Amino acid sequence: MPVLVVAALAAAVFLGTRGEGGQIGSESEFARELLRLEEDAIPLLAKIDETQGEVSEADRKELESFHPRLERLLRYRQDSIAAAFLAGKVNLVLGNHLTAEKWLQQAVRNAEPRQHNLDVADTRLEAYRLLSVLYLNQNEYDQAFKAADAAVKGRPNNPEHRIARASALVQLNRTEEARKDLQAALQLDPANERARGLIAFLGAETPPKRPERR
Question: Are 48 and 59 a contacting pair, CB within 8 Å?
Answer without folding.
Answer: yes
